[in-house]
UniProtKB/TrEMBL annotation:
GO terms for molecular function: deoxyribose-phosphate aldolase activity. This is Deoxyribose-phosphate aldolase. Its EC number is 4.1.2.4. GO terms for cellular component: cytoplasm. It holds the Pfam family DeoC. The lineage of its organism: Bacteria, Pseudomonadati, Pseudomonadota, Alphaproteobacteria, Hyphomicrobiales. It comes from Pseudaminobacter soli (ex Zhang et al. 2022). CDD domains: DeoC. It catalyses: 2-deoxy-D-ribose 5-phosphate = D-glyceraldehyde 3-phosphate + acetaldehyde. It comes from the Bacteria. Pathway: Carbohydrate degradation; 2-deoxy-D-ribose 1-phosphate degradation; D-glyceraldehyde 3-phosphate and acetaldehyde from 2-deoxy-alpha-D-ribose 1-phosphate: step 2/2. Its main location: cytoplasm. It is found in: Cytoplasmic granule.
Amino acid sequence: MAEQVVKIRAASTAEPVAEPAPASAHGAELARNAGTPLKPEWFDNARVNLSAVDRRAATLMTRRTVKKEWQAAWLLKAITLIDLTTLAGDDTEERVARLCAKARHPLRDDLVEALGLDFELKVGAVCVYPTMVPTAVRSLKGSGIPVASVATGFPTGLMPLRLRLEEIRYAVEEGADEIDIVITRAHVLEQNWQALYDEIAQMREACGKAHLKAILATGDLKTLRNVYKASMVAMQAGADFIKTSTGKEDVNATLPVGLVMVRAIRDYRELAGFDVGFKPAGGIRTAKDALAWLTLMKEELGNEWLQPDLFRLGASGVLGDISRQLEHFVTGRYSSADRHAVA
């Protein structure tokens, strides 16, 4: 097979982003990524043009913008893509239950009425630690909102593999629909692709019917070439989603890293024929940040990826700012942040 070369450069033309697909609830169920045997020839000779990546990422929000009712529509779409998350050491069942109530009703009733929404607005998923999965499952019963659980020694992943696999099985048995795993960064830094592939493949098997979201912890991987290669190996091993970060690294989701990862998704689709989802996480704090990520997905992968089955935002805190922006659209005034508490 011919060598795969990643060439990322500033695009001269791109599809307009002024008219997004209408915000909606969950789309059709994602077909699983069956994976492939490890194929180093798909990524070994990959090259990434750093200056072109930075230039492309920097111009995402300067060449086109969305305003007024179109911006409101995009922000509503962003809400449906959020993985509402609590991963704190002092999590309680009550806190998780409140978070799930917010997931069911992410906007105040007066804003829903003022916006004239004719669909049930809800977030993409709720993500918790394994021990909190039963509480989330009970709280979300009948809502159609998936329960995601981190596992495999989150956030470092530095536990024996057998214990990481057992944690996955425990979370699935408790009712988790999705498992967010963390990879062993050392495998990437040492270019040990077989070890990385085998690890993720075993995690995929342990997930059973639950979807696997592979966290690459890109802030620890040092180079964009490593990010591309790790993305490709994770997808070959059967990951249903690839995710930028745990949110605990010094550097989390950035647009240049996201661009490299979605280009890997695009290449994998062409080579293997499977669609893989993408989730940026960490550092996404404002409505403007959310719009930038939606713009990236639309321009690089198209409207098909602006659905929760193929795109998630790991950014619970952004919901408050989106709510403030929507209230400003309705009333012309900004309210204080405490009127839009996440839970």
